[in-house]
Amino acid sequence: MRKLFPLLLLLFTLQPILSQRPEGGPGNGSAPVTISGIVLDQETNQPLEYATLVLQSIDNPDKVTGGITDIDGKFSVETAPGKYNARIEYISYKTKQLPNQTFTKSTDLGTIKLALDVAQLNEVDVVGERTTVEVRLDKKIYNIGKDLTISGATVSDALNNVPSVNVDVDGAISLRGNENVRILINGKPSALAGFGSTDALRQLPADAIEKVEVITSPSARYDAEGTAGILNIILKREKTLGFNGSVNVYAGHPTNAGATVNANLRTDKFNFFTTVGYRKRTGPGNAFFDNNYFSRTSTDDGGNTIITEPEFSRIIEDRDYERNNEGYNLNLGAEYFFNETSSVTGTFFKRISDGTDITNIVSERYKSTLDNETFRKEVENEDDKNWQFSLNYQNKFDNEGEELTGAFQYSEGDEDQFTLYDESITIPTNDLISRQNLNETQKQNDILLQVDYVLPIGEDSQFEIGYRGNFEEETNTYSVEDFEITSGVFVPNIDLSNDFTFYQDVNAFYTQYGSKLGKKFSFLTGLRLENTRLTGILNSESDFLQEFAGEIDLNFKKNYLGLFPTANLTYEIAERENITLGYNRRINRPRGWFLNPFPSLTSRTNVNQGNPDLDPAYSNTFDIGYLKRWDKTTLTSSIYYQNETNSFERVQESTGLFTSDGIEIIRSIPFNLATNIRIGAESSLMYNPNRKMRFTGSFNIFQFKSEGSFNGQELGTTNTSWFARFNSKITLPAKIDWQTNFFYMGPRANAQTKSKSMYGLNLAFSKDILKDNGTISLNVRDLFNTFKRRSYTETPFFTSDSEFQWRVRQITVSFMYRINEQKKRGRPQRNDDEDEEEGF
Fold this sequence. Notes:
This protein is an all-beta fold. It is found in: Cell outer membrane.
């Protein structure tokens, strides 16, 4: 019953699609007439390619036809004689209305000039022919689909080219240096994003993305989850009439081969779209660890001092990774237009991948000198299946902006992982130490229900209200088998086996109101109410679980109710200059793997454990932004302040247990550590001296201050870090495009670990061929092979100096062929190169 009411609400929302509409059309049986004309930019008089002429019959409003303009801005459309409401549309321009037109013979509408739409309530566009950024009240929108360096790359690679965003060598995504970022696909949580994990984003092709919304000050319409903000990935979907598509094939070294096909067919009543992809990739990587262990002092029950010496004072590890992954993805959708204002869209997504990861670890163990050496091999086989179905209804009641939307989405994921651990002594003898089989299965299903209603009030105001329900169920099965050397068989290890089921239900209601006061001031304020229910059930026959869990309640139920206000304001200083102010309150809910109390092996000497006692963290964030545009330069900047309370992070501590050969077992467990304060500033400068050169630089600096303690150890820290990007795109002779992306991450630290700076340089070259229908590209990621994480961890009982590289330098060659799809879209180049930007 808890899910029935939202479902009924959605069904009532979709009820209008069942209404009957008149059939037939004007002029049946009459010879067609031709409607022609030319569409130009009002300021530059340059032709607008792909502008759309829409003809809607007055006698039969369901009868809609039309066409698009060619490279010269001309259109020529055949239709039946009759009376029509005509209009000409083009993205970022005001629609030209031509009501009550009677076409009894072929008609030339002449020259039609469109003006830029610069007076939208929630939007300030920074747009050009190759523009990749729009600045709105609550977000920035980056079109990364034209970035040369992402051809043959993954979604994670593409995100690493977006300002304010960083993807580290482990694949962890952060926004303004904060990893608690919410990832959405087309505005919703999705199986495409891996149910909260970012691993799936390393398998999806980047060329399926149209744009990325960076939402650092989310309005009340968005989930309150994610204290850093939201990254919303918008997938490609064409909106022009007719058939169009593209095929992209690529191959690279180390092995990186695949193909992606995008296709779209739009008629008056239907829009069919699909993306199909195949990818095969290897990921050679490496790591190095130098761990030093210290003696520990403790006191027994009689008050006597006990000094415990470690078995080894130093352990040096060298690791080599060989990752092999093969995957398929399919995104299939269809949209049906009931009439000019309402439509329903259904989409189906499926991703299948399987991979084998082999890790070889050589460990040198020292007392005073080298005492022994071990070799450990980990072979992990993973089979991953995800699918998702969604149904979306949209009804724009009129041309004034009133709109009702409803959505239903069901996602299901199934991941099976089998890992063999094999470790032997190689010096001074050659003996087997340990052999284990680990089986882990994760199953998850999500249901999402959403209804939103927008009501314009007057010309410059609007009211919005909505509901969203997210219902998640996740089951993890974890079992371990130990190899008995004497019998030569694997025996189940009951102490390390368990089943954990986790439920998270979030019901949210929101309302917001926005208005433009005069010509200078706009605001958007809102309030979101969210109720969260978390339930965890653990089944295990482990005898020593309490040694790890202590007083933790292994089965738990929690209920949270929170109010999340938001406010975004803009003041127009001048036509090309404004100031924005944003405020929002957000929540960081612990996911299932943070709450599961059962310890899971990451190696023979390290375990990860969740903490059911974790509570959500809450943040309050303020953001002040400044935008200034000149003829060839655009500056965007902001300063921000965030105060997060009850924040949690993982702490490493001793378990007091040892392996059979005397190595102390270390546990990593999360705790609420108190307060985090983050203050920072960022800026982005875009300079376009001419049509053949474009330069973009961005810089983000922030200070992170954490206050808290654990088991008497002070874990507070203050750290200042920064990262910067530089991007250039230059057109060389013979129309060869050359793009350079450079990224630098400054040093940073948390409670126990300090990380050194790292940097990477990407290059790409492309050339249009086959009458500009095809493009061949060469790109090199991490040209100097420097994108490595170097860290130093210090605790009371050990230190660790490490270096990790996820993947070595990558070289890829790709070829894209476009079918009825031009390389460049958007409004034409303005004479002063105003507001161009590209290359993120």
